[in-house]
Amino acid sequence: MSEAIERLSAVKADLAKAATDHGRSPQNVTLIAVSKTFEPEAIIPVLDAGHRVFGENRVQESAGKWPELKNRYPDVELHLIGPLQSNKTREAVALFDVIHTVDRPKIAKALATEMERVNRHLPVFVQVNTGAEPQKAGVLPEDLDPFLKLCRDDLGLNVMGLMCIPPIEDEPAVHFGFLATLANRNGLDGLSMGMSSDYKAAIQFGASHVRVGSAIFGARPGPATQ
Ligand SMILES: *Cc1c(COP(=O)(O)O)cnc(C)c1O
pTM of the full predicted structure? Predict the structure, then answer.
């Protein structure tokens, strides 16, 4: 058994325990295996073990490796969890099944136009910059409600929920609780939050999707935020 398979089983067991400990059904928490920076050789064992939900943060990198993997494993569900540039929307809508990083009108409009053009209406999450960090993507909390209105009412995007990446130096639970409040206020069930180091806390606060990379695939070369 490959190390990734062992780690995947351990993460699944921890996820199930975190869910049941907080009165939730493990089936209501989707585990996104974040395969960014890893080659197909590292991803295939996880596919062969039956896992089908994956996350990537770069359109270009994904376009290089996922079309072939999707041919071999047609029921794969691929999530874009990294920033999207408007000149990549065509490629992104063609390749991904869910987009987690809608955070500004230009991208929301480009996605809506492209989804309409190809008649492929993907579910999306709106990324919220819960820590209001200047360098970080995401709509500011105070701008969220009008932005959601634009996405849902004006553009007709299928908004599943909200996504956040808490500031490195903060207690993540504070941000998870805050994101859950924002989602609840807007009638949204989806919460994309929690990574390798904090997915159990995210589940406690209602995460519907956790994005787990290194705890499954091992350490990535380069900076952890890559
Ligand atoms: C890389 C990445 C993850 C996974 O990070 P790990 O700490 O390896 O689990 C989750 N979410 C986003 C947005 C990422 O870019």
Answer: 0.96
